[in-house]
Specification:
mainly alpha; 2 domains; 19 helices; 74% helix; globular
Length: 488
Amino acid sequence: MTASTRARLALLVVCLGSLVAPLDTMLNTAFPVITGAFGLPLRDLQWLVIPFVLAQSSMALVFGHLGDRLGHRRVFAIGLAASVLAHLAVALAPDYPTLAWLRVLQGAAVGVAVACAPALATLLFPPAEKARALAWYAASFSLATAVGPWVGGLLLQAFGWPAVFWSRAPVALAALLLLPLVPRLAAPGSVPAAGDGPDYAPGSRSAPRSGAGTDGVGQGFDWIGAFGLTAVLACLVLSLAEFTRPEGVRPQAFVLLALGLGGAALFARHESRVAHPVLRVEAFRSLRFSGVQAASVIVNLTCFGNLMLIPYVLTRDAGASIAAAGLLLSGYPTGSVLGSLLAGRMIRRLGWGSQAGQAWPARLMAGGLAGAALGLLLTSAILYAGPVPWLLGLSMLASGIGQGLFQVGYMEATTTMLPIEERGVAGSLVSVTRLLGIVLGATGIGWLQGLTQDYAASFVALGAGLGLFAAAFAAGDRRARRRSRPPA
């Protein structure tokens, strides 16, 4: 078997294990079923999303950092094993509070599993093929996101809402059993454990070696930063949930906000002083880097309206069955698959993969933001005219294509702007910004829908807001390119 074939097989295993995260879109089809089963208002759906996303985001950053030090494959294996147990446990929840709490466990396990997956995907191939590997990884992620709502609808009709959780345990178990196909890769700066094989990247001519003199986890790992980041994220997100309460703002909202902002300042100060920070805050001093991360949060926030609101439109207003709603809901993530594949084709045709540091990732991101905004506005127009199910599927497809284009450009930009020895952190940032956008969307879109009491008006606000941001992002990129040009 050639080195290139081994690398492709290993990439398939990495993509398979990563599916535990995007297959959570099965839950979106189950939203009407779960709220009906437990007698919940739409707004309470945030407690299915917030615990999962907070745990996944925190664990992705922490274990992305751990992967850079101990080895990405080992962390990936731990996450897969934990995912098998967590998905079985959450399916057994007897009531809604227990279900919400078990989503913390599920999110943590998934966060560990996906923390190092992008790093593994890129380190399996030589640098010239990194962009193509990222495109295939993004496409597989989007494909699972697309299949999730449809499969979720079928499982819901056959087995009820627990099936959208336990059905992912066999996926994680299969990837865990196939893990020997993934070689033990050591990122620069990592600490190989006893018994690890030679550190090499299939398909490359030279082997990345472990950094000499790097201290182990017990001595150098930033535990204070890891737990501090989790606390800061929890305080800020929970304060937003409190501020958007329909009953009115309670004093707890201001307390949580103050704790979150104060904790963020202390976290930034701490991270700037430790030798091995869990998140390098210096990178965020660059307006370009911070803008790219903000763009990922905003596009995922606004596009989450497809997965949060459209299931109710289809099952209540359009009269679709739960299985048909799941199939139509797949239009949005299917668009993301097409967008990712289109981006990969553009990279190959235009030779962008060999142009490190060039402007193409920003152009891809700007075009993707604009395309996603147009899709959201098209959805609002269809809702105003009358919810025709197949037209809603097409508008969600358009929105997804835009997001798929954006995602490939974003992953390339983020992994390029951070040093290679922090590839695990860069990969986890990809997951964290997406999840942060989703959790803000779960809270903010629920508040927006409660304010407008109209699905079409909510999509107008989401599409127009994303469109304005896309224009500002493109203008900022043009200014940055002009400033970076050498004087004539």
